[in-house]
Structure formats: structure tokens, C-alpha cells
Amino acid sequence: MKTLHVIAITLVFVGALNWGLIGLFGFNLVTMLFGSWMGVENLVYILVGLSAVLEILTHGKNCKMCKMK
What we know:
Layout: H1 2-25, H2 29-34, H3 38-62, H4 64-67
Helix pairs in contact: 1-3
């Protein structure tokens, strides 16, 4: 489960970084890297979205700060 968490949080960070770059500079990193492969670009967006859902559902189990009272 830890490996899945690491992959998911990495993809969430990639998605957040991409949105930050779009907002600040109008630069889409995913499109730059995979723009010529539309299917791969869409797959990256789907995986980022699924990773966010996984992190939302399992955050309490994985976050040391949320476990503290």
C-alpha cells in the first residue's frame, strides 16, 4: 500500500505543479511532454485525477499529522 501511496502522491504533486504553471505562466507541462501523444496526455490526466481521489479517501491513514491529536 505504501508504494501505491507514493505513486499517487507523486501524481498529485505533478498535477498541482502543472496547474500552478498554467495559472502563473500559461504553460502546460503535460502538454509539452506528451502533447503529440493525445492518448498518453489524457491517461496522465486520468491517473492524476484517480490519484487525487485515492489520496482523499486514504489521507487519514497515511498522514502522520492527521493522526496526531
